[in-house]
């Protein structure tokens, strides 16, 4: 089946076709899920090379899980977001717990300050990203999945392995923090002129 | 976007709109590599299994065992050739043999005796005759 004919096919059906050895399904899935995996990883890690590594690892796990995939058990995109999110959190924690050269860091990082600097020199999307970067990792993850990837709260609960109420709480706290960071910059980035 | 999400975003809506519009996109090279990786990791298509009845499967095993006991395909081919030769000898009229026996019947009796004497000179010498 040609790739064009697969645009209406669900991820789950495509994965079944992939497991059955259909090459067009492999191409369709890579082109459909690759950007999603990369997008979340990039928003979480802020580093293109790291985001590519994480997204590649998540996709590789998906290809290897395909033959044993049980239809109806999990949504492919939810599963993929979960793997990407967990890999990102692992990397963030490793980076935080890793060796830090104190000579190379003259002063402790000030998230609010770096966000302000970003706000001054970047566009609106970049300003939001800079503000997101200052949030605690779980809040950042929940806000990205909810407001940038457009997932439902139950899907995010499954991805983050927490309850729906906990997701609502995380996103609410995340939004409040973002309002504090971005509210004062509305005029600066032209929102008050619209 | 759902009304619930819109209500949640409230004053942050324009910021999230900007963030969604500026979604990080992977490079074409990376996507091409992911496509190649997907194809590389893809399971090879399996031929549909043909159902074989247990009786047929047992017959197949017995035939294989018999052929193996005889010495495999070369031995079976030799056996088949010998069988075909036997059938040919039986089916074809022995005109050459009839002509030969007719010719010997008209020869001298001693000649016929000599011709059909089964014992050779060596046998006679050994027996002291």
In short, what is this structure?
Chain A has 194 residues and is mainly α.
Structural commentary:
The complex is a heterodimer of chains A (194) and B (129). Chain A is mostly helical and 194 residues long. Chain A has nine helices and no strands. Chain B is 72% helix and 0% strand. Chain B has a domain at 66-127. Chain B has helices spanning 3-9, 13-21, 28-41, 54-70, 72-91, 95-105, 109-116, 121-127. In chain B, 6% of the residues are buried. Chains A and B meet through helix 2, helix 3, helix 6, helix 7 and helix 9 of A and helix 1, helix 2 and helix 3 of B. Chain A: This is RNA polymerase sigma-70 factor.
Tell me the quaternary state: heterodimer
Strand content of chain A: under 5%
Biggest sheet of chain B: strands, sense, closure?
Answer: none
Q: What is the radius of gyration of chain A computed over CA atoms, rounded to a whole number of angstroms?
A: 19 Å
- Which stretches of chain B are poorly predicted, pLDDT < 50 over at least 5 residues? none
CATH topology value of the largest domain in chain A: Rna Polymerase Sigma Factor, Chain: A
Give the number of helices of chain A.
9
Largest sheet of chain A: none
Please give the most extensive interface between any two protein chains, plus how many residues each contributes.
Answer: A-B, 50 and 32 residues
Shape of chain A: elongated
**DSSP summary, beta strand count of chain B:** 0
Give the terminus-to-terminus CA distance of chain A.
48 Å
Helix residue percentage of chain A: 55-70%
Coarse morphology of chain B: rod-shaped
The CATH architecture of the largest domain in chain A would be: Orthogonal Bundle
Number of discrete domains of chain A: 2
Order of helices and strands of chain B: HHHHHHHH
Radius of gyration of chain B: 45 Å
What's the mean pLDDT score of chain B?
Answer: 75
């Amino acid at each position: 089946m040609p790739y064009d004919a697969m645009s209406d096919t669900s991820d789950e059906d495509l994965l079944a076709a992939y497991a059955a050895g259909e090459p067009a399904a492999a191409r369709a899935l890579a082109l459909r899920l690759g950007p999603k995996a990369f997008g979340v990883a990039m928003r979480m890690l802020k580093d293109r090379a790291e985001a590519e590594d994480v997204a590649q690892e998540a996709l590789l796990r998906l290809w290897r899980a395909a033959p044993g995939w049980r239809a109806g058990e999990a949504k492919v995109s939810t599963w993929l977001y979960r793997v990407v999110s967990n890999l990102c959190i692992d990397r963030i924690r490793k980076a935080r717990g890793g060796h830090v050269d104190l000579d190379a860091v003259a002063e402790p990082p000030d998230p609010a300050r770096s966000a302000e600097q970003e706000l001054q020199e970047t566009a609106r999307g970049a300003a939001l990203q800079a503000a997101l970067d200052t949030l605690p990792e779980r809040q950042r993850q929940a806000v990205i999945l909810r407001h940038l990837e457009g997932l439902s709260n139950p899907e995010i609960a499954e991805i983050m392995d927490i309850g729906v109420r906990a997701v609502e709480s995380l996103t609410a706290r995340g939004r409040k923090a973002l309002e504090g960071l971005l509210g004062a910059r509305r005029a600066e980035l032209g929102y008050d002129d619209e | 976007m759902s009304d619930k999400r819109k209500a949640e975003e409230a004053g942050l809506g324009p910021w999230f709109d900007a963030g969604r519009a500026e979604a990080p996109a992977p490079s074409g090279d990376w996507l091409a590599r992911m496509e190649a990786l997907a194809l590389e990791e893809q399971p090879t298509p399996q031929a549909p299994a043909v159902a074989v009845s247990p009786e047929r499967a047992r017959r197949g095993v017995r035939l294989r065992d018999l052929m193996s006991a005889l010495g495999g395909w070369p031995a079976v081919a030799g056996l088949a050739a010998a069988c075909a030769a036997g059938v040919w000898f039986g089916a074809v009229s022995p005109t050459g043999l009839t002509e030969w026996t007719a010719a010997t019947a008209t020869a001298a009796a001693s000649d016929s005796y000599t011709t059909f004497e089964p014992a050779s000179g060596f046998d006679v010498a050994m027996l002291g005759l």
